[in-house]
Amino acid sequence: MPDAPLLEISRLDAFYGDFQALFSVSLDIAPGEIFAIVGANGAGKSTLLKSIAGQMPAPTESILFDGEKIGGRPAFSIVRQGVALVPEGRRLFPSLSVEENLLIGAQGGRKGEWNLRRVQELFPVLAERARQPSASLSGGQQQMVAIARALMSNPKLLLCDEISLGLSPLVVRDIYAVLPAIAAGGVAIAIVEQDVARALAASRRVVCLREGRVVLAGLSHDVTRAEVAAAYFGV
Amino acid sequence: MSARAFRIERGGLAGACLALAALAALAAAPAFAGSANLGLLSQIFAYIALASLWNLLAGFSGLVSVGQQAYVGLGGYSLFALTMFGGLHPLVAALLSGVLAVILSFPVAALLFRLRGAYFAIGSWVMAEVFRLIAAQIKPLGGGSGASLPTIIVTGMASSRQAREFMIYWSSLALVALVLGLTIWLLRSRWGLALRAIHFNETAADSCGIEITRVKFVVYAVAAFGTALAGALIFLQKLRISPDAAFNVNDWTAFVIFMTVIGGIGRIEGPVIGAIIFFALRETLSDLGPLYLLMLGAVAIVAMLKAPKGVWGYLVDKTGFEFAPLERRIVYSLNEGNNPAAPDSKGDRP
Amino acid sequence: MEWANSILQGVLVGGLYALFAAGLSLIFGVMRLVNIAHGDLIVLAAYLALVATQTLGVGPMTSLLLIAPLMAAIGYALQRFLLNQTLGGDLLPPLLVTFGLSVIIQNGLLEIFTANSRKLQAGDIEVATWAISDKLSIGALPALQFAVAVAVIGGLQWLFYRTAMGRAFRATSDDPQTAQLVGLDNRHVFALAMALSLAIVAIAGVFLAVRANFDPAIGPARLIFGFEAVIIGGLGNLWGTLAGGVILGVAQAIGAKIDPGWQLLAGHIAFLAVLAVRPEGFFPRVKH
Q: ipTM value of the model?
């Protein structure tokens, strides 16, 4: 790809107290690209997304986004910069209705083409359930709200943490089906996923993390199952 | 690991020796200290007792009360009532005041424990207000304007003024020794372990089978007992009582909180250090009036934000020495720990 | 009929208690902060209004145009630069810092204004009454005070459930971490909540000062009245807070009718009775 990378991570370390969760992780993501991050439980996938989104401390120069050093900035200012995280477990606001959950996504974000009407076109059920409390939705619908809420901030980079967790295969398929449409509008998407096959199918490029280190990186349709399995388990 | 590879130490022997020496020296003070100094020391002792008990509640048990003046006032009023109408000796009356406070603390706690966290704090304050308003309705004790202890009771305690001062002094010293001993014993007992578990994580403690409510009731009752006893001795020294003085939130709670926070909350030694600092400030700055209190408030805020462990916490961090350590320490004996035959000794090392 | 009159006056005073309570309830709802200095801030607002009326020659109600924004600014700064540092799980820091603040405000006012009682003069409105019958009448001032309380609580309700700011308040209260992920700066949201709380405190302070004498020491009692109204009404329910204020006002009025010494005691006893039989209050928050 000729484009300059949208996100450039170089030699990122991350710590929980004395415990080191990431070791010198480097990667880059291009504009409009779907990028998969795979790895076993505890490999550091979520930690990586949290570091990018500002939920973990990070050295300033280790994360370059859209030409700016954003490492260690507070989460709310990174959203304004154009990075939105769909958190693991969806984390909808229970005392807000479905529509309010979407509207609040726009409140602190950037101006752009995503708005209430467009996310409701993407996920029509969100228009039907607009007035309902968010907790009354099914898991799949809640996941749609969480993605739509992140889109409302008009990100250039959408980080999706385990969006298939706890959902039925059919619902997962529906949700993954909208990702290309989002990316087509120029939004880069980073997906963290346990389901390696799904991640490889949906993405252009992939990295595999093990014990906080990048152990495999390549084009998704180039890497073989055996390579991923070897990287995944370290055998 | 072989059975003798480590032993558990409670520590605090040096502290205990020092404390006993201090107690002996202070008990002998009437032999050389003047009347004014004895009075001041009695006050300091009473405040150390109050602050230690508040520390037991807020620092160790998560019961942040701003209504302990309820029990100070209750102790004072019971002393007056029991001596004036019951004809009891003041020291007997003081002890009975403590017992009365324990009895009353149970229904009070039953109500207040329905409030969580900060709401418990304000609820305890309401309770103290209720006590004050009821005291103001007791006409035989002067209603809202209060009463003085009749001369006959004062002289009945001991005929000479000096003997009375000595008696109050030793009682206050006994009180502070009792309160400190009681809190150390309580915190080192199974109850104390339970308290620390609750403080650390209430849900986890609950699932370990600790009866949180029962532990809190016991602590609250112990604090009520000691606080009322202190209140009785304070007003025995003052010889005059009124609802506003007896249930004063500034005198019996704000100052007490100040001492505990400055000295080091959640530590046995904290309130002792804090009370000494407080009296040192009071003796030099109280002429400033409201400005002095304003300054105390500001110092407390800065301490809470910048040095939440207080003076004693700072010193412990620097030196590692504690008078009254609450933790048991595991001490590894080096020879046996190095024994290669001990299979998993490495895993147990701190 | 005398009783009816007492109870009616109690209801109207309840509006003032609801004003004390609304600001307290608001910040607890948004950031789980209990502000021990709340009552002293009400008294501070009363003194600021006193200074404004004396130096500018305006009436107490007009002075609110200045005092309410001023208190809001104080609230914003207080939260942003002091109280935000105390939040984060442990109960003690916010409690002790606001307690220290209470001591500072009380003694600061004492130093500047002395312990003498003051009162704000509101002119004709203070004596105007509407007679309903021979023995039953409504004072214009208590009526205005009650109407303002209803308006403030209605306004808060609207703000919370119909505006972007209210959405931010609720979202931050639900989940402060995730609120940051949607671009909300908690420090700012909390400071806005405190600003709003102290704007209401300003209104409460002016009504307090017009209604009766005040001095630097009366703050804690106002905190307690507000707190009792919140608990009686049920945590997290704004209209419940108004009901709580009214119940407290009526209880005090009935107590005072029996014996003047029983006025405050009756209010406290009503509170304790509610705590004993219905600790969640009369109108606990409906779960969404």
A: 0.91
